[in-house]
Specification:
Layout: E1 3-7, E2 10-13, E3 18-25, E4 32-39, E5 46-51, E6 58-60, E7 68-73, E8 78-83, E9 92-100, E10 112-113, E11 117-122
Parallel strand pairs: 2-11
Antiparallel strand pairs: 1-3, 3-8, 4-5, 4-9, 5-6, 7-8, 9-10, 9-11
């Protein structure tokens, strides 16, 4: 059983940056691929970014390419979503998800989820 806890959300002005962290416990971290999803007000949860278990492969949704990066530190059991040039449309609850040796952009592709952290980008 893997437990995931997101942190780092907050309020930021458009054009600013935030760094989200996903801390994992309860499993062998370097076996798990991680993904970030978000749910904006009134919308369904959507895929944002993916990083595989080695950190050697990353995937991003088109709307964040060039603005967001994802990384992981397997020695610390953490993953990071670095968000830059934030836009009001990035406002959402951001979730970290994990799946052993997984890959995918769908909610169903991931077994373990964190509770989410709120990101609010003001005009």
């Amino acid at each position: 059983q893997v437990q995931l806890v997101e942190s780092g959300g907050g309020l930021v002005q458009a054009g600013g940056s935030l760094r989200l962290t996903c801390a994992a416990s309860g499993g062998t971290f370097d076996r798990y691929s991680l993904a970030w999803f978000r749910r904006a007000p009134g919308k369904e949860r959507e895929f944002v970014a993916f990083i595989n278990w080695t950190g050697g492969r990353t995937v991003f949704t088109d709307s964040v390419k060039g603005r967001f990066t994802v990384s992981r530190d397997n020695s610390r059991n953490t993953a990071t979503l670095q968000m830059s040039s934030l836009k009001p449309e990035d406002t959402a609850v951001y979730y970290c998800a994990a799946e052993q040796y997984g890959y995918g952009k769908e909610i169903e592709d991931y077994e373990y989820w964190g509770q989410g952290t709120q990101v609010t980008v003001s005009e």
